Amino acid sequence: MSIKDQAAVVGVGATPYYKRGQSYPQSELEMACKATLLALEDAGLTINDLDGFAIYSYSCDPAQVASTLGVPEVRFAASLTSGGGGCAGALGLAAAAIHGGMANVCVTLMTLQQHKRRLGGSAVDGVLAYATMSEGGGAYGGSGIGPSVAFTANNGLLSPGHSFSLLTKRHMHQYGTKREHMAEVVMSSRENAIRRPLTALNRKPLTIDDYFNARMISDPLCLLDYTMESDGAVAVITVSAERARDLRQPPVYIMGSAHGGTGRWGPAIFRYFQAPDDEFASSGHRPVAKRVYEMAGITPGDVDVALLYDHFSPMVIMQLEDYGFCGIGEGGPFVADGNIRWGTGSIPVNTHGGNLSEAYIIGMTHVREAVEQLRGVAVNQVEDAEIALVTGGPASLPVSATLLRR
Amino acid sequence: MTDSSTATPNPFGELRQGVFPSILKDPHADETTQPFWDAAADGRLVATRCTNCGTFRIPPAPYCYACQHTDTEWVELPGTGTIYTFTIVRHPLAPDLAPTVPYASGVIELDGTQGAGARMICNIVDVDVETVQIGDRVEIVWERVSDTMSTPRVRPIGGPPGAGA
Ligand SMILES: [Zn+2]
What we know:
The structure holds two protein chains of two kinds.
Chain A: E1 7-14, E2 18-19, H1 28-43, E3 52-56, H2 62-69, E4 76-80, H3 89-99, E5 106-112, H4 122-132, H5 160-175, H6 179-194, H7 208-213, E6 216-219, E7 221-222, E8 230-240, H8 241-244, E9 252-260, H9 277-280, H10 286-296, E10 305-307, H11 313-322, H12 331-336, H13 354-358, H14 364-375, E11 387-392, E12 399-405
Parallel strand pairs in A: 3-4, 3-5, 10-11
Antiparallel strand pairs in A: 1-8, 1-9, 2-8, 5-8, 6-7, 9-12, 11-12
Chain B: H1 34-41, E1 45-50, E2 56-57, E3 72-77, E4 80-89, E5 103-110, E6 120-124, E7 137-144, E8 150-156
Antiparallel strand pairs in B: 1-2, 1-3, 4-5, 4-7, 5-6, 7-8
Bound molecules: zinc ion (ZN).
């Protein structure tokens, strides 16, 4: 028994995407409700049909959303653990809830406003607070500084960009990956974004010189290798495959979904960097890739478009390897050969512009684009796209992937 | 944006390019980590080793991830190692930290251990950051920051790479 082909995504809804902080004075709750209602409407359903929340990163409080919108009865409310790594996998959670008979209509959503906080800034803020605190105060939660904090607090590595620069540097060392390769990921995403005036937040033309002139943040990662910082909400609705056939939109079936990773990956990338040598310079996705392909019964060659979580450009290169589009260590030359370009490449990647150029709603923009590709209504439509791969992470466990088909 | 040259003292104290300040002044130790900091105060590096299978783990943890045993012994290590990976931080985490950049910090595989599982993450000091390479040999230097805490950093040493265990 598996969830293969048992459920389908039938509705997508989103607020506009905003630059960081600019969704204010809307609240995150308001945007979550807005996206949910739009997704239900897209599916031809109403709030009276909604009974499940299959989320990740504790993106919203289902109690609040259900109460605000007047959901008649919530029958399922669960989140994948940890952060953005779970986004694609939350569709699998929805499919499992539906196939297991626990819910009928599930929403998966992210809502994000970075008005008074910045993602990735918590450790930095903590540093500042700790350095300036008076006796008794505390940066890590009052007096609750755990005994392991002292093993990392004073080393100068406290932000996600620092973590991913360490993985990238090791990948460059082991495999000869170059900054030119990362630049190609960035420029390919930007080209895709430029053709999407309705959603993409950064459509400024970009040359290789622009890339090499960009401010270096955490060497080897420059400003353009980092995700944008955005606000907004995106929601999708999942129902059983049977019910999907009678709804407004063509069903996008969940062929397979997996989340997790090896135990020793753990929280490694943000704290202890203890992943084994054969996994360190990777996206952490290899075991998830194996399981998602097995469940779907397909191979990488069957995938028509890949929406790969791109909070940092080299993580696209590592995922291309870990999802089998090229050999391990060959991701750099693979992108340099034009393989991820829309229209000409062997596996178009992030046709929406990705987190690097469209918007960063912690992975849900990738889910939305996969659905639009398989409905045949994408702006940068991949001709005859039948199967899409969506991923979440690398991040702390779980990382995740879902394969969708039309 | 604060200007460190004005009268307002920098909350991080005296800063030097290449050195990330010891922002934590106390290890907040419990009985599982106190021996590490006691040895650090003497300028020695110690780590917990599984008495069942010999796997080192840093920081101390309640179970051996290799064999799930709980018993450990403290073992003194030579305090040398090899840079496994690193980054050069060129943009400060906060405006007040601007005088520290660029600084290099990296993951160190320690001599006398199995490597992964017992790596340490350290600021790499006393070096021209532009010359740092993966595989460089380093040794730990301790910065005494308070009566209870000494921060480990590493600096380059001579000798061939991989001369450790
Ligand atoms: Zn053991």
